[in-house]
Amino acid sequence: MLTVSKNPIRGIDCDAFKAFPSLEYLYLEDIDAEDAPLHCSSSLKSLHSLTIENSKLTQLKKGNFVGMEKLRSLSLTENHISVIEPGAFDGLANLDALSLYQNNLSEIVRDMFIGLEKLDWLTLSENSISSIDPTTFELFPNLRYLYLGSNKLNNLKGNEFTKLPNLSYIDLSNNDITSLPSDIFKASTFLTHLLLNSNNFKTLEKGSIPAAPKLEYLYLQKSNINEIQPGTFEDFKFLLDLDLSNNTLKHISAEMFQGLTVMYSIGLEHNEITDLNPDVFDNFPQLKRVRLEGNRLDARIMEVMKGKYPEPGLVIME
After folding, report:
1. C-beta of residue 262 within 8 angstroms of C-beta of residue 238
2. What is the distance between the terminal CA atoms of the chain, rounded to a whole angstrom?
3. pTM reported for the whole predicted model
4. Where are the domains of the chain?
5. Domain 1-121 adopts which CATH fold?
6. Long-range Cβ pairs for the range 211-217 (8 Å, 24+)
7. Tens of pLDDT along 76-118?
8. With DSSP H G I counted as helix, E B as strand and the rest as coil, what are the percentages for the chain, rounded to 5?
9. Residues in contact with 299: Cβ distance below 8 Å, sequence separation at least 6, in sequence order
10. Residues 6+ apart with CB under 8 A from 307
């Protein structure tokens, strides 16, 4: 492994890598050169992992990685990349993980990612992405983990993820999403984790968040939710963990959570709840964890709840 960190290097002579013909891990941080070491790909044929972090990369050019056929992990986080030329990832047919976290990408188009058929993990969080070409993810039939948090998405069409049959985890947090198309996860038969926190849903009703067949974890905290209509979650038959914390809910009822019969944990802390029906959790036979701290509940209601659910494991937190 070779690490070069916090060094005012303005250029890299490719001959420098000839002394390390078996180099497998290269970590570069705070490098001033705009393309280092991408022009040296033919001298880095043994690399398994390449990280170029917090440097001055502004674009990825066609052929940048040709010669790095053994590369499995590529991290280009905290750069200034705004352009990815078609063919930029040529030669990376074995890449498993790609991070473009915290760059300056504004859109995702198909030609950017040609040649990454084996990709399993992709993060595009902390960019300025407002649109996604729906054919882009056709290129990643094996993708399981997709991170799109902290972008500018607010108008998903519904067909962006239909070609990701193996998707199990998707992060759409901290965008400006107000609702999701009904068919957006229809092909995601293995999706278990859906992160939608820090969006702008306000009122939840049936269809606001389409259910994936095997979804187990749904995170909706900090999403300006002030109302949940009956039937919203009735199709979430396998949901184990629901986080609705840090919203503006004032009242909750059993009808809001109809269908959540295998629920294990629910987060309702830091809302504005003033009224709680003691029977609200009667249809949750598997429930072990309830978080209610930071609300406006009367102490008498909390005492009733504690008496009603005395079994070990159920936590009513004030």
Report:
1. yes
2. 50
3. 0.91
4. 1-121
5. 3.80.10
6. 211/185, 211/235, 211/236, 211/237, 212/185, 212/188, 213/188, 213/189, 213/238, 214/189, 214/190, 214/238, 215/185, 215/191, 215/239, 216/192, 216/240, 216/241, 217/192, 217/193, 217/241
7. 999 999 999 999 999 999 999 999 999 999 999 999 999 999 9
8. 10, 20, 70
9. none
10. none
